[in-house]
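Batch manifest line 304
LIGAND: adenosine monophosphate
JOB: complex structure
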Amino acid sequence: MRTVRTIAELRAAVAARRVDGQSVGLVPTMGSFHAGHLSLMAAAREACDAVVVSLFVNPTQFGAGEDLDAYPRDQARDAELAAAAGVDLLFAPPVTEIYPDGFATAVTVRGITEVLCGDPDRRGPGHFDGVATVVTKLLNIVAPDVAYFGRKDAQQVAVIRRLVRDLDIPVRIEALATVREPDGLALSSRNAYLTAAERQRATALHRALVAAERAVAAGETASEPVLAAARAELDAAAIAPEYLELRDADDLTAVTAVTRPTLLAVAARVGRARLIDNTVLEPVPQPAAVPAAAGAPGEGAPTQ
Ligand code: AMP
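JOB STATUS: finished
ARTIFACT:
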């Protein structure tokens, strides 16, 4: 594995792989690798000839007062893990390489960035401007055939799919399942902020999602009872969520019932960590109405 720090070096290294028609996969990350990141690298390794991982703690996606300075960083360990995962190129640029003096452009995806994590009363859409801008730059720099993202950041995936369509960027976006601890907690670099007691409480996020899944599996479709089932788990762990919402799984519009695949997304502060998690609720298929005269044996009209 080669670690490169400049755009010119990375472009040259990717071009060298392209000469003999190799396919290229990109895994954008902010480092501090865990099994979630490694699952994306494994998928890229499986499907692509050349695997590029970017490691860049992107300052423009952190709001004022967020954890940019505290964000866990360990490039030596990350490089070892990436090499062991079969990564070919690790792109770890300094901030000035991505945002040189005079940098003045932002990519804004409207609508879907203004809810959930982008709600103006919470982090604001600026977070997703930062994400959309850096991902657009990475896609332009690497020009991969496939880029890999985690469904744990479901809104981020929706934003990236939107911008790739809107800006005609020729890349396939793969979104992979959330990797969890055995007790259900979604792996996250920010889990490092949790004390042992908070780490225990944090498992309530996953329990909340499972409670909602069970309610839907039992036939519930109205949003309030589904959300109440989830909220009860958060309450029991004394977690007041920043949001707990049902949204259309594709365009993130608000929904009032689970009548098709529906995203249930949660964000909550637990101690110093701001954690997010989600699941897609699949309504149980309703049996087709059976005409009275055509009832099964033992139903409907008397048989004698
Ligand atoms: P980050 O370094 O947190 O920006 O994450 C880099 C990529 O890894 C993003 O596409 C995330 O969605 C993905 N990711 C983060 N946590 C997980 C997880 N637990 N399972 C799967 N993918 C994840």
